[in-house]
Amino acid sequence: MITELTSSERQYAAVILVVMAMVGVAMAALGRSDPFGVHGVIVLVYSVGLLFLVLSSFYAPEPRTDRQASYYDDPIKVGIALSMAWAVFGMFMGVWIAAQLAWPTLAFDAAWSTFGRLRPTHTTGVIFGFGGNALIATSFHVVQRTSRARLAGQISPWFVLLGFNLFCILAVTGYVMGVTQSKEYAEAEWYADLWLVVVWVTYFILYLRTLARRKEPHIYVANWYYMAFIVVVAILHIVNNLAVPVSIGHAKSYTIWAGVQDAMVQWWYGHNAVAFFLTSGFLGMMYYYLPKRAGRPIFSYRLSILSFWGITFFYMWAGSHHLHYTALPHWVQNLGMTFSVMLLVPSWASAGNALLTLNGAWHKVRDDATLRFMMVAAVFYGLSTFEGSFLAIRPVNSLSHYTDWTIGHVHAGALGWVAFITFGSLYTLVPALWKRDAMHSAALVEVHFWLALAGTLIYVFAMWNSGIIQGLMWRTYTEDGTLAYSFVDSLIAMYPYYIARAFGGLLFLLGALVACYNIWMTARATPLIAGSQLDLPDRRPATGTAPSPAE
Amino acid sequence: MPELFHRKIERTAIGFVLAIIAAASVGGLVEIAPLFTIHETVEEAPDMRLYTPLELAGRNIYEREGCYACHSQMIRTLRDDVERYGPYSLAVESKYDHPMLWGSKRTGPDLARIGGKYSDLWHVTHLMNPRDVVPESNMPSYRFLARTPLETADFGMQLAAMREVGVPYTDDMIANAARDALGQATPDSDFSAGVVERYGEKTQVSAFDGVATELTEMDALVAYLQVLGRLTDAAYKQTAASEKAPGSQQ
Ligand code: HEM
Ligand code: HEM
Hints:
The complex is a heterodimer.
Chain A: H1 7-31, H2 35-56, H3 74-102, H4 115-147, H5 156-177, H6 190-212, H7 221-240, E1 243-245, E2 253-255, H8 259-294, H9 301-314, H10 330-342, H11 344-358, H12 362-367, H13 369-391, H14 394-400, H15 404-433, H16 442-475, H17 487-524, H18 529-532
Antiparallel strand pairs in A: 1-2
Helix pairs in contact in A: 1-2, 2-5, 3-4, 3-17, 4-5, 4-8, 4-15, 5-6, 6-7, 7-8, 7-9, 8-11, 8-13, 8-15, 9-11, 11-13, 13-15, 13-16, 15-16, 15-17, 16-17
Chain B: H1 2-9, H2 13-37, H3 53-64, H4 79-85, H5 120-128, H6 130-133, H7 143-147, H8 155-164, H9 171-175, H10 177-185, H11 192-199, H12 217-227, H13 234-237
The complex binds protoporphyrin IX containing FE (2 copies).
One protoporphyrin IX containing FE (HEM) sits between chains A (91, 94-95, 97-98, 119, 122-123, 126-127, 131, 184, 406-407, 410-411, 414-415, 418-419, 505, 508-509) and B (69, 104-105, 107).
Transmembrane segments (chain B): 12-36
Pfam family, one (chain B): FixO
Keywords (chain B): Heme, Iron, Membrane, Metal-binding, Transmembrane, Transmembrane helix
């Protein structure tokens, strides 16, 4: 990997890592025993570890001079590996906290392992670790293939990928030490947030510069979604995380937003983290890998346009559906509800577009578990967006809010949609990237598919049941007009479902382990030499930036 | 032809990005900006007091331990919420909350008005091991809080940072932050008069964890729990009726 870099690039990489190591030392010195200091040490160890890797091949021979004639796939390979590692970590945490809800003593009476501290390690691990790495890796693949150009940088792809993982590590290690902003999906503290801004801006520039090298006049649909993901996540992240640290040696900060305004900013962020992280980016995946695997073009270009702009515009209005019947002014709640319902149209346009693309390839869906992963993902996408629009209606939300129904909805989306589309895409991408005919074992893909599907269904049905029961128990009155059930009554009714959910999650985790093994074995097999010749960039000058004379 | 128009935007990455930013900005601007300008968004509550340093420290522990992952602090305007937990929450009640802790999940009950519902001793026993009090509970035990001394050295800086984001702590409060924390948890000590003087008559001075000699994280957390819903009386004066939950029985 490092041998792919020229010696001046190796120097450049070493300089960046030395600077990062110095930042780590400074943080350790400023923070001392504060968790900020511990994070300084982590930054230091991380940078020195990478520096060691760079130095170990520092004097290796120069790479081939015609690097530009091939795609830059090394960062993608590492990204896939990191994504799977985070998947196992994040889902293990999911199973653990699920088990804690059923058997609370599983926290073992320690501080770091209590439910409240572990829960964000689960959400960050799966959303940012698993999802984020998969998005970065696939976006690097898709942008190169659809532009028929190599990534516009040698170091920056590594900086983006490894920098992002440093952010994830700081976030997750922070939670177990008790470092958190307590904003859902934005728990990481101010310094990790600042670092993410640097990484994200680099990502954005890299993406635009690669697009500028494209040999196609038009930007392919998948890239629209990846661009929306990158740009809007940057905006959301910056606004929601504006905060004043207690001092520059303290991990703790206070957000500049307070009370009701904070609630609105937080859920404007939170809902759009769903929209632009868990939806937009993964739609980008879907729009590339699904047609590719099915061997058919996207059903309708018009539907893609409708869906893209609908999602980009409507989603940003919908955040207030997280705050129905609260102290947020009524007019904002109503706007949120209205736009959430309208959001169903562009959402189903994408789900429909995906399923209609498969029309005519159903025999492949039957035989090929990889394509089936993506088909099920599209179905669950349709399902969870329908459910979302339904839950956003105020009277429905009065029942579902605060209950496990929300958790059921989340995981219908997160497992059924996000994880399924990711696994389907990875099973398409991995053989192509390592230049193999197919995955090591088609049977294991099949096994993974059924484990994942069973796990998802058990999880989601358990939570739908428990959520609705819980919601109904809270609002049931006796004959003489008093509340019929105490809170603890409703808690007792939850236990069977908590156990079922932990079991479903365990199946899902086992599936992910099977995937890791299969990917590992595929990467180790001998490559096909002949096939690799076809997958090369177009060497003609870029048409991306220059206006074409015909316009 | 919209389709042809779109074909044109697709040719420039920068143009496309600008279009995304334009489309994505509208919703947030329309919904968030007015919350700062429309006056009725946050009610008036002249009796609203600030968190004492000890309560603020407790609040930080509440965040640190992720209590918000299982407990909401937002009583909705629904009748069953109000009958179960008390008058519905007003925006003003969280006006000094950086960040708000309204929560999104009730694995445990709402805590917006838990202050005063139980004795300090109940809370300590419950936090040490919830199953000693409620055998069916799945809340984690927090014994370590009672073992961990409360770090007060930086309390002045904590209050100063809060002032930075808009909470009206005075110089006097900032200067005495660490002493006030100690004073609030050690009744009859030289410092307890000061905290009442600075934060108001209603400030509760108590040996929260039952041990008046040492300040622990348990003191801070219980002090915070006991002030929840009691920073102002505004919610009790509110006369508007709550809503009947749609479809609820009776
Ligand atoms: C092995 C499978 C999984 C298990 C067992 C699992 C379990 C859990 C549990 C127990 C919670 C806490 C629920 C509560 O507070 O009541 C949770 C929350 C959450 N999980 Fe998972 N999870 C799994 C996979 C995933 C995946 C793959 C994703 C995302 C891609 C995900 C995203 C989330 C999110 C966003 C939340 C927070 C929900 C909210 O606050 O409403 N989970 N999960
Ligand atoms: C049309 C699209 C969608 C709409 C209108 C929608 C609407 C909603 C609503 C109303 C809630 C409940 C809020 C509450 O009562 O607290 C919610 C929660 C949530 N949804 Fe969706 N949803 C949609 C699609 C999705 C998708 C595709 C995912 C993907 C994973 C997703 C992930 C989540 C998460 C993570 C939460 C939990 C937030 C929290 O409380 O922590 N949603 N959504």
